């Protein structure tokens, strides 16, 4: 996966067209997701509950340092070498920090084989054919299920953004057809996962597990709230503020610094409180306050937001962590499509309202590129009109984000209050060595109910 990441960075760096960059970004997302998920899997299986949140946040502490150091580097690269060299730097530097993780994996795999603990060491002697291996891999990856949920998500959310440019808008037959087919695919996906999938991504035991469902909902709504208010924030600030590139980059890192600092504080709280529910409910209001603060700051023309706070780190039963941690991924397209839909429907009319003296072609140019408005100095009627139009749209986006941000606080009250102690997970009540440990809150019967 690291080699795949390096190759993708080189593809983007060598791109000569927007299409190549877009394809590289898609492949980059795949490799980046895998690389960020791997450390979390390690932490989930190698730490006890009371330390898990804190350790998972501490490995992200370099982001705080990078928020100040990386800003200066990224600001100088476009001026001296061009932005494509940024991807070249990633391709060169990435193998060094990943080497300890790769060496640890190779060492663990070698030791497991030596102790006959690896599935491959106990595999039958006969070799499967290429077609059999392909079918086995597709079954383990649940390719059919992923295609169904991917197609359903795309067909439902694409019309939100495309309806403004399609002929007839929402009355266009293709818009209605896409949403209809997308909605039909949802029960088809559920039926396939429950009845036919050998290795389902969303297994029945996940759907009827209160801890898994609520923790996924909390994370999904928190992400939706954040992204709706954040998708066009930088475009607005870029036009509204006459900042230099380095100051703009400093602003772009504020949410990362807040995320890391409050995440570590949340981990410390979980370590000493030993209760997941209290820590989760303490974390959610910080996200809501961040959204409201962004609205106040924008209205006062200061702009921006502190960013999102920590997503509630709720402890699920011992289900496959790699699957549980990605269950909210189908929801991640929703905030971007929603923000895009609001933006594409409101922005043209608001620009026309504040800049009635401009021609339709010139207003289209301003909508097509944020650089068009920055050609005018602050105080110019064109730039001020664009800022006012941005302000109208951003108020709606922030209001919608605030509504979604209130949901996690409400549903977190239904989350089981797992005791965070020396156990590896909240059900088995055993430590990392397999020995049973004391748990004052959860016994076998309560674990089964939760």
TrEMBL record:
Signal peptide span: 1-17
Name of the protein in question: Uncharacterized protein
Cellular compartments annotated: Membrane
Chief location category: membrane
GO molecular function: transmembrane transporter activity
Keyword Transmembrane in record: yes
Alphabetically ordered keywords of this record: Membrane, Signal, Transmembrane, Transmembrane helix
Topology with respect to the bilayer: Multi-pass membrane protein
Provenance organism: Psilocybe cf. subviscida
Segments crossing the lipid bilayer: 25-46, 58-77, 83-108, 143-162, 174-192, 212-233, 253-273, 396-415
Domain of life: Eukaryota
Gene Ontology terms: cellular component: endomembrane system; plasma membrane
């Amino acid at each position: 996966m690291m080699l795949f990441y390096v190759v993708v960075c080189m593809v983007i760096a060598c791109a000569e067209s927007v299409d190549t960059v877009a394809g590289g970004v898609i492949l980059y997302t795949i490799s980046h997701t895998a690389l960020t998920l791997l450390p979390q899997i390690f932490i989930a299986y190698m730490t006890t509950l009371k330390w898990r949140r804190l350790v998972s946040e501490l490995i992200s502490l370099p982001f705080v340092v990078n928020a100040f150091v990386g800003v200066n580097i990224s600001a100088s690269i476009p001026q001296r070498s061009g932005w494509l060299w940024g991807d070249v730097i990633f391709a060169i530097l990435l193998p060094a920090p990943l080497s300890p993780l790769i060496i640890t994996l190779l060492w663990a795999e070698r030791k497991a084989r030596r102790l006959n603990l690896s599935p491959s060491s106990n595999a039958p002697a006969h070799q499967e054919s290429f077609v059999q291996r392909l079918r086995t891999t597709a079954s383990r990856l649940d390719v059919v299920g992923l295609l169904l949920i991917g197609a359903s998500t795309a067909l439902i959310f694409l019309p939100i953004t495309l309806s403004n440019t399609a002929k007839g808008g929402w009355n266009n037959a293709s818009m209605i057809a896409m949403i209809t087919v997308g909605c039909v695919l949802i029960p088809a996906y559920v039926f396939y996962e429950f009845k036919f999938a050998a290795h389902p991504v969303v297994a029945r035991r996940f759907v009827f597990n209160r801890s898994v469902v609520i923790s996924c909902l909390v994370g999904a709504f928190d992400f939706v709230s954040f992204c709706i208010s954040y998708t066009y924030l930088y475009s607005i600030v870029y036009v509204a503020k006459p900042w230099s590139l380095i100051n703009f980059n400093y602003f772009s890192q504020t949410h990362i610094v807040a995320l890391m600092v409050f995440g570590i504080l949340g981990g410390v709280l979980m370590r000493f409180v030993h209760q997941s529910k209290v820590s989760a409910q303490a974390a959610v209001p910080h996200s809501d306050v961040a959204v409201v603060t962004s609205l106040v700051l924008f209205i006062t023309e200061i702009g921006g937001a502190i960013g999102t706070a920590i997503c509630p780190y709720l402890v699920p039963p011992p289900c496959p962590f790699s699957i549980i941690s990605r269950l909210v991924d189908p929801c991640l397209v929703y905030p971007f499509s929603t923000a895009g839909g609001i933006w594409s429907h409101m922005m043209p009319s608001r620009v026309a309202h504040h800049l009635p003296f401009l021609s339709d072609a010139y207003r289209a140019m301003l909508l097509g590129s944020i650089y068009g408005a920055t050609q005018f100095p602050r105080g110019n009627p064109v730039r001020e009109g664009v800022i006012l139009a941005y302000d109208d749209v951003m108020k709606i986006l922030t209001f919608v984000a605030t509504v979604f941000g209130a949901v996690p606080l409400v549903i977190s009250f239904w989350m089981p209050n797992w005791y965070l102690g020396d156990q590896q997970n909240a059900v088995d009540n055993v430590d990392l060595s397999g020995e049973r440990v004391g748990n004052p809150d959860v016994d076998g019967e309560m674990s089964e109910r939760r």
